[in-house]
């Protein structure tokens, strides 16, 4: 297990303060705001710990304020329903006395019934794509500096882009679609709740960025102010987050400073694991941008 994965597991292991009240912390990596995927994952962990006979199958969340990574976040869970088939929870993330994030999650144990799913697109296998060290060695000199720093940072999630051109291009417009293989960088415990939380964590990665492909920009572009605003996740089938999954993303709409993106996660054998949707802020900065020479 890598150090980054160990730290992620420690961060997801929330401290119980009181009944239905938990505390979580952020990694100290110099970010100005808490990573949205971390808040989603921690809130899901908090909600799941109050449900004993069902697993999360969907969540809907809103980011209300940017999180302060230097201060712990308190997660307050409200038990909305405990039925024979479903349980429902609301979880609020609180920091500096204010609610910065709210999540509603539904829990259900699968039963026998009708079944169908879309098949994944045909893409190169992850073994046929460069790992991150080779990716940086091969393309690093062509990347904008903020993108290169992102890939050089040790992370608990490994990504292998099917189309590396997305991370190299400077100002090139294209269809707002991207496909990325993702997995945890080390073996995770067998607890399915850990795998659901890990998937929730990385479901926020690269998704909003997809809406900027059509405009020749990324979330790192100095002209863009980007932030996740809401996030929805549906979990369809059992999976392991430490095994390769294909994250297929597209963005059918952007308008008025908002970008909408969708995602589907497939297992190596083609099973549809999860579906994701998100809208985010992709505002053009009003002040003159600096650092454009990097692009």
Descriptive terms for the model:
12 strands, single chain, Thiol Ester Dehydrase, Chain A, 12-stranded antiparallel β-sheet, 6 helices, 36% strand, HotDog_dom_sf, hydrolase, alpha+beta, 2 domains, 18% helix, 295 residues
Can you describe this structure?
The protein is of the alpha+beta class. The chain folds into two domains: 1-109, Thiol Ester Dehydrase, Chain A; 125-295, Roll (Thiol Ester Dehydrase, Chain A), CATH 3.10.129.10. Helix content is 18%, strand content 36%. It is built from six helices and twelve strands. Strands 1-2-4-5-6-3-9-12-11-10-8-7 form a twelve-stranded antiparallel sheet. Helix 2 packs antiparallel against helix 6. The radius of gyration is 19 Å and the shape is globular. Residues 30-107 form the Acyl-CoA thioesterase-like N-terminal HotDog domain. Keywords: Hydrolase, Lipid metabolism. It is an enzyme of class 3 (hydrolase).
Tell me the CATH architecture of the largest domain: Roll
> Which strand order spans the largest sheet, edge to edge or round the barrel?
1-2-4-5-6-3-9-12-11-10-8-7
CATH fold call of the largest domain:
Thiol Ester Dehydrase, Chain A
Biggest sheet, in brief? Answer: 12 strands, antiparallel
| The CATH fourth-level homologous superfamily of the largest domain | Hotdog Thioesterase
Q: Could you give the count of β-strands?
A: 12
Mean pLDDT: 91
Distance between the termini: 36 Å
Spans of 5+ residues with little confidence (pLDDT < 50)? none
Shape: globular
Instruction: Give the strand content.
Output: 35-45%
Tally of contiguous helical segments: 6
Radius of gyration: 19 Å
At the first level of CATH, what is the class of the largest domain? Alpha Beta
The helix/strand class is alpha+beta
Q: Portion of residues in helices?
A: 10-25%
- The SSE order reads HEEHEEEEHHEHEHEEEE
């Amino acid at each position: 297990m890598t150090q980054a994965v160990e730290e992620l597991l420690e961060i997801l292991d929330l401290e119980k303060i009181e009944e239905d009240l938990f505390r979580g912390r952020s990694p100290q990596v110099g970010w100005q705001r808490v990573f949205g995927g971390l808040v989603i994952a921690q809130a899901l962990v908090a909600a799941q710990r109050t449900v004993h006979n069902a697993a999360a199958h969907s969540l809907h969340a809103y980011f209300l304020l940017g999180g302060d990574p230097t201060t712990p976040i308190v997660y307050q869970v409200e038990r909305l329903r405990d039925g024979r088939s479903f349980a429902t929870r609301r979880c609020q993330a609180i920091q500096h006395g204010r609610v910065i994030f709210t999540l509603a999650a539904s829990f259900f144990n699968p039963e026998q019934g009708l079944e169908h799913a879309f098949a994944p697109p045909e893409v190169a296998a992850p073994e046929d794509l460069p790992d991150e060290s080779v990716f940086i060695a091969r393309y690093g000199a062509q990347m904008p500096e903020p993108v290169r720093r992102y890939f050089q940072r040790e992370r608990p999630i490994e990504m292998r882009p099917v189309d590396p051109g997305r991370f190299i291009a400077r100002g090139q417009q294209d269809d707002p679609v991207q496909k990325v293989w993702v997995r945890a960088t080390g073996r995770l415990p067998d607890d399915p709740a850990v795998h659901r939380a890990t998937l929730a964590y990385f479901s926020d990665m690269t998704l909003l960025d997809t809406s900027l492909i059509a405009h020749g920009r990324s979330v790192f572009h100095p002209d863009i102010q980007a932030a996740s605003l809401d996030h929805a996740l549906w979990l369809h089938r059992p999976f392991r987050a430490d095994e390769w999954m294909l994250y297929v993303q597209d963005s059918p709409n952007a308008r008025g400073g908002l970008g909408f993106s969708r995602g589907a996660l497939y297992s190596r054998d083609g099973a549809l694991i999860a579906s994701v949707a998100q809208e985010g802020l992709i505002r053009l900065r009003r002040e003159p941008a600096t650092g454009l020479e990097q692009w």
